Amino acid sequence: MQKIIVLTGAGISAESGLKTFRDSDGLWEGYNIEDVATPEAWQRNPVLVQEFYNMRRKSVMEAEPNTAHYALAKLEEKYEVTIITQNIDDLHERAGSSRVVHLHGIITRSQSSLNPTLTYPIDGWEIKMDDVCELGSPLRAHVVWFGESVPMIETAAALCTTADIFILIGTSLAVYPAAGLIDYVPDGVPKYIIDPHIPYVRGGESVTKIEEKATTGVVKLVDDLLSK
Fold first, then answer.
1. pLDDT tens digits for 128-166?
2. Is 102 one of the catalytic residues?
3. How far is residue 135's CA from residue 123's CA, in Å, rounded to a whole number?
4. CA 201, CA 174: separation in Å to the nearest integer?
5. Global confidence as pTM
6. N or C: which terminus of the chain carries fewer CB neighbours within 10 A?
7. What CATH number labels 1-18+65-104+150-228?
8. Per-domain residue ranges for the chain?
9. Closest CA to 122 of 134, 138, 139
10. Residue 77: is it exposed, middle or buried by C-beta count within 10 angstroms (0-12/13-18/19+)?
């Protein structure tokens, strides 16, 4: 069975109504990234950061997977599919994808603010300021902030080296280290890029560009791959 590695970004979730992480104005839901998505922000104003992610979590729980998410899950009928996502939502899992690697964490879990390897399911959509981990440290969203290491990046890079087919969806390849993952895909492996604004990637004839939104471009590509 051929291995398909998929790298998804904010574009696929945007069509489910979730705001992209960094829009053209440099804000996320009206907030400066530096005020809500850094360790320093947590030190300065943990209440603001907690409230911000509680509201993002509520939005994620209210959102529904779209046709692109469901199409990727359908690929598992014929291929061994692993999705590496930069997104912190759980829409891939809810659509039925069985192998999902979250580079930047997943907002539906909490983590210790002392030890990031201690993570927990969340009952509902809210983490309260007096919720603590087993070490007695306050819980925060299980999300990788700017300035923090990306613990799953080595796993993701290793997966990319195994790809027989590589698909890039809804990302501008502007955020590192995730943007460098495509460089681990072996030369000559077919690469498909789906986005209304295709970023530059090397690869020449092995790269197929589908300049469409995820909900249309992914469905077309999946239908094509399943028919082969």
1. 999 999 999 999 999 999 999 999 999 999 999 999 999
2. no
3. 19
4. 12
5. 0.93
6. C
7. 3.40.50.1220
8. 1-18+65-104+150-228, 19-62+105-143
9. 139
10. exposed
